[in-house]
């Protein structure tokens, strides 16, 4: 790709001055339109050292309202970032609807500079490329406009610019030893860039090569590329908004009906397999609980010493025993080493981002435990059934959630998801018990009773969820929960077993 780029392109000062006022005015207008339509925009600047990324960013933002964008300069990972999955620091920087995030350097550092300096091992590359493409695809599917600009200069020009920077005391610091090494081994680094461009140039996030030998030409091409991408996205959003979803509605209904029929078989093979008669006596429970909690206390310390993160997700029927299981799990753990994240309906800030954004922000650093009381799986249960997201959105969510959990696993995390399972009669008994107990009445709401009316719909959704998202790296564990004693012990035993297995592998 790069060898075919004509780096001799230039623009006269006169032509530049003629073009820029119109481009600057147009970009400011498009920023306002993106804000009005709630379009999040991500502009990525990558390329060779001294190709002018900082200069082009500075020129681009001159035409924008500074209240609507943020520039992120991506350097080496901080200590905090090193203790999270690779994509964590980028997920947390994704823009809200209507805002623009500009990246000076980006997630591509892992397959470029980090690879060149051998911090990224060869065996890690395939997974890094998968994670990058998944990240961009998820955001693009959610309505993010991703503009990727690669600034290209040749070896001779790069060396010339480095020497000019080094001659000035005020700019010499900008040329690192790594920059000079990459110039000496320019062809080797360019080969890595070629591979990166080839593997990550996609329909949803294409690369644009910016011939950056002449800075005026580069500036005009950057502006033109950004403007064209914004115009296309605005037109796409407006067309989608104007189009009514009546077409094919009956056909979709028929498809859903057929899918539901097919899923009836899943109910037999998954949830109905649970033996809800399993139970422990109080004496058995106390004995097992004491033994497992002591193990958990010790293992929690080992997790911290070995810097192993743990992600535990709890889902289940209302009154299924999530809170009780979490309480017994954490009772002997050091409170400084875990966080329980109760997941409620998303607030306005969370709604303005990709639905996984708020969960990425809560993921644990190495050696810590994150426990989620309700999880990202709300997307394929309550949001699916109550119509809070489109059919297209919840159908693609299975892959998105699998990809996120794989990122966590590849970063060294233990990931386990629990479905707290009870039958309908047991749920009704617990609901009534809560209503009659003044200290537990806060736990029961009218919504809980309404949800019971959709039990069959939820059962279908849960079975599909379990089938599509239980993986070797992030399994679902169905917990037989009619007996609370049995459920709590199974959760503890599962977590203890997974940690012990992992420690034995270390």
Describe, in plain words, how this protein is organized in 3D.
With 506 residues, the chain is α/β, with parallel strands linked by helices. The chain folds into 2 domains: 2-241, Rossmann fold, CATH 3.40.50; 279-505, Rossmann fold. The chain is 54% helix and 12% strand. It contains 21 helices and 10 strands. It has helices at 13-37, 53-61, 79-82, 88-91, 113-116, 125-141, 155-167, 177-184, 186-200, 215-242, 249-269, 282-306, 322-330, 348-351, 357-361, 382-386, 391-410, 424-436, 446-452, 455-469, 484-505, and strands at 41-47, 69-73, 100-104, 145-152, 207-211, 310-316, 338-342, 369-373, 414-421, 476-480. The chain has a 5-stranded parallel beta sheet with strand order 2-3-1-4-5, sandwiched between helices. A 5-stranded parallel beta sheet has the order 7-8-6-9-10. It starts with 12 loop residues before the first helix and ends with a helix. The model has no long low-confidence stretch (mean pLDDT 93).
Summarize the structure.
By secondary structure, the protein is α/β, with parallel strands linked by helices.
| Chain-averaged pLDDT | 93
Count up the domains. Answer: 2
Number of beta-strand segments: 10
Rg, rounded, reads 27 Å
Determine the CATH superfamily of the largest domain. P-loop containing nucleotide triphosphate hydrolases
The helix content is: 40-55%
Distance between the termini: 42 Å
Category from helices, strands and their pairing:
alpha/beta
Discrete helix count: 21
- Biggest sheet: strand arrangement: 2-3-1-4-5
CATH top level class name of the largest domain? Alpha Beta
């Amino acid at each position: 790709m790069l060898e075919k780029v004509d780096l001799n392109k230039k623009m006269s000062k006169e032509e530049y001055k003629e073009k820029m006022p119109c481009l600057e005015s147009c970009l400011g207008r498009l920023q306002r339109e993106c804000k009005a339509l709630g379009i999040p925009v991500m502009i990525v600047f990558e390329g060779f050292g001294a190709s002018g990324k900082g200069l082009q960013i500075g020129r681009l933002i001159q035409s924008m309202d500074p209240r609507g964008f943020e520039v992120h300069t991506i350097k080496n990972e901080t200590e905090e970032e090193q203790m999270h999955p690779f994509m964590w620091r980028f997920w947390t920087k994704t823009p809200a609807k209507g805002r623009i995030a500009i990246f000076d350097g980006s997630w591509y550092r892992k397959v470029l500079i980090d690879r060149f300096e051998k911090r990224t091992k060869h065996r890690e590359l395939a997974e890094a490329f998968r994670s990058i493409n998944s990240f961009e695809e998820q955001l693009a599917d959610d309505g993010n406009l991703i503009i990727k600009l690669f600034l290209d200069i040749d070896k001779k020009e790069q060396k010339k610019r480095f020497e000019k920077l080094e001659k000035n005391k005020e700019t010499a610091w900008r040329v690192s030893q790594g920059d000079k090494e990459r110039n000496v081994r320019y062809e080797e680094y360019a080969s890595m860039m070629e591979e990166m461009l080839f593997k990550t140039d996609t329909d949803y996030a294409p690369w644009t090569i910016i011939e950056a030998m002449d800075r005026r030409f580069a500036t005009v091409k950057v502006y033109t590329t950004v403007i064209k991408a914004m115009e296309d996205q605005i037109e796409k959003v407006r067309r989608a908004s104007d189009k009514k979803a009546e077409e094919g509605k009956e056909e979709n209904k028929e498809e859903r009906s057929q899918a539901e029929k097919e899923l009836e078989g899943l109910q037999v093979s998954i949830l109905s397999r649970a033996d809800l008669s399993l139970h422990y006596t109080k004496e058995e429970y106390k004995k097992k609980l004491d033994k497992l909690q002591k193990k958990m206390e010790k293992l929690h310390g080992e997790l911290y010493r070995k810097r192993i993160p743990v992600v535990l997700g709890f889902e289940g029927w209302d009154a299924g025993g999530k809170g009780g299981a979490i309480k017994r799990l954490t009772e002997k753990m050091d409170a400084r080493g875990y966080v329980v994240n109760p997941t409620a309906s998303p607030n306005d800030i969370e709604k303005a981002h990709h639905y996984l954004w708020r969960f990425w922000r809560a993921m644990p650093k190495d050696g810590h435990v994150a426990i989620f009381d309700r999880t990202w799986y709300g997307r394929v249960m309550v949001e699916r059934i109550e119509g809070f997201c489109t059919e297209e959105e919840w159908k693609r969510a299975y892959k998105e959630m699998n990809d996120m959990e794989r990122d966590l696993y590849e970063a060294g995390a233990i990931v386990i998801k629990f479905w707290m399972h009870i039958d309908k009669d047991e749920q009704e008994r617990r609901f009534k018990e809560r209503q009659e107990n003044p200290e537990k009445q806060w736990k029961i709401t009218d919504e809980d009773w309404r949800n019971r009316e959709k039990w069959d719909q939820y059962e279908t959704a849960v079975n599909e969820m379990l089938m599509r998202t239980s993986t070797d790296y992030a399994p679902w564990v169905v917990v037989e929960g009619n007996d609370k004693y049995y459920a709590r012990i199974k959760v503890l035993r599962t977590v203890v077993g997974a940690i012990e297995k992992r420690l034995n592998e270390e």
